[in-house]
Amino acid sequence: MIDKRFHKWIVLAVPLVAVVELALHIRQVNAAPSDDEWARARAEVEKRAKPEDLVAFAPQWVDPIGREHFGSQIATYEREAYPDVSRFPRAIEVSIRGEHLADLASWRETDRSSEGKITITTLENPSYVPLKDDLLKHVGKPDVHVALVDAGGEHECNFGRYGIQTGNLGFGPAVPPLRYQCAGGAFAGISILPDLDYRPRRCLYAPAQGANSTVRITWNAIAFGRVLHGHHALYVEAERDQKGAPVSIAFRSGDVSIGKLVHRDGEGWKGFELDTSALEGKTAELVAEITSSSRDRRMYCFEADTR
Q: Between 123 and which of 102, 107, 292, 299 could a Cys-Cys bridge form, CB atoms 3.0 to 4.6 Å apart?
């Protein structure tokens, strides 16, 4: 039998909870920027941002809203799915609720303004490193070739427009419509990889094809600097359980080895730098070869530049 005092407490508590929920809802609605504020913020960013600048939204959960209001001309793939921030001389941070991006914590603030509830901050990168070349910028051009190498020899992959392929959680990154299509289902093309932190990363998606098979990517002419700088990872759902075979990528120029890297499950968006000082100032061939003992969920993606 329910105690009468307890019953009375329940009767009083239910309306109180409803009032609290309503107050929180009103507060949340009033805290959100209006469409007009987003439009004014976009106009301000359009005036400030240079093509080489990063434009980023804070906190990270507001990023989809920022993309919707700013559009793909400002919220480009290169800005939204950057490999790291070292390549950007400046950043325009568009933030709400006093939040800031951890990636920009050490940057120097040079300007700040507000459009209602939106704060627009211009920051300068104290560790900016200009690029000599960017491997992704060559993909799809005549100077890049992809081949599948197996026991039967080297098989050239055709670059063209194919149907885009996507799926539910676990499918992997979208298989891009513009790609190098190889025999047996192998391919390579630029896609967006969700890393272990579910951060988007723009990279060259080239799944490993298992034992006795190599995905070979050749750039005919890359401008070399002191280092080959980059990152590599696997699709989050393919590496988070740490059960898959390691994936290796080996770089060379002609017959000269630049270095070999191994990505193991659980390492996430892993950075690397390989010494290319012997090639600094030269424009030469670069070859990347991707291998693994298994092809099971080896959804491998990488990006690199020269500095």
A: 107
Is residue 101 in some structural domain?
yes
- The model carries a pTM of 0.89
Question: Of the residues 88, 107, 124, which one is the last residue of a structural domain?
Answer: 124
* Whether residues 69 and 198 fall in one domain: no
Is residue 292 classed as helix, strand or coil in its secondary structure? strand
Rounded to the nearest 10°, the torsion over CA 124, 125, 130, 131 is -120
Q: Beta partners for 159?
A: 180
Domain ranges, residue 59:
35-124
Residue with tokens 């630049």: 258
Residues in contact with 181: Cβ distance below 8 Å, sequence separation at least 6, in sequence order: 157, 158, 159, 160, 162, 187
Q: What is the CA radius of gyration of the chain?
A: 24
Instruction: Answer whether residue 25 is part of any domain.
Output: no
Q: What is the count of structural domains for the chain? A: 2
Q: Are 161 and 56 in a shared domain?
A: no
Q: List for the chain the helix, strand, coil content (%; round to 5).
A: 25, 40, 35
> How many angstroms separate the CA atoms of 289 and 262, rounded?
12
Confidence of residue 245 (pLDDT cuts 50, 70, 90): very high
pLDDT for 170-202, tens place per residue?
A: 999 999 999 999 988 999 999 999 999 999 999
Q: Are residues 66 and 101 in the same domain?
A: yes
Give residue-wise pLDDT tens across range 219-242.
999 999 999 999 999 999 999 999
3-state SS assignment for residue 131: coil
